[in-house]
Design a protein that fits this description.
Number of strands: 3
Largest sheet: 3 strands, parallel
Strand content: 5-15%
Radius of gyration: 49 Å
Length: 146
């Protein structure tokens, strides 16, 4: 964290900066220090934070890392396997859709057959004795007498 020793703390301070109007001691998390020229005890502040000047400066290292042939082979193999799985998934989805259509068709045929069975059962139902007697009487009444 940056520490600034000043008599004039800004109205809109930087949230990443610790502003101080008096020196009470070293701030442990300080990574850099800025002291205004007119700040009282400026020399004392500089001496207290002298250890910051002795710390090694951070360095940026740029690495250019390439993909090894082994890693590329593994990536290619994984990609090929993924493509196979996607193709298999598509094929299985199509097959499942066909099977669903077949089930719908069989269910419809089954419902049609059930309806026909009910119709045939109604037609083929054997009349009870009372129903037969009533039907015979109705038949005789319909026939003209000679």
């Amino acid at each position: 964290m940056k520490v600034v020793y000043t008599e004039n703390i800004p109205k809109h301070p930087d949230p990443n900066v610790c502003y101080r109007s008096s020196f009470l001691g070293v701030i442990g998390g300080a990574t850099s220090v800025e002291v205004d020229d007119d700040f009282p005890d400026a020399d004392l502040v500089d001496q207290a934070y002298a250890f910051l000047d002795n710390q090694p400066k951070s360095q940026t290292v740029s690495l250019n890392v390439g993909i090894t042939p082994e890693l590329q082979a593994s990536l290619d193999e994984a990609k090929a396997e993924c493509e196979k799985v996607v193709a298999e998934n598509t094929e299985l989805t199509d097959q499942l859709d066909k099977e669903r259509d077949a089930v719908k068709k069989l269910t419809s045929e089954n419902d049609d057959l059930k309806t026909k069975v009910k119709e045939l059962e109604t037609k083929a139902k054997k009349p009870t004795a009372a129903e037969a007697k009533a039907a015979k009487a109705a038949e005789e009444a319909d026939q003209p007498k000679e």
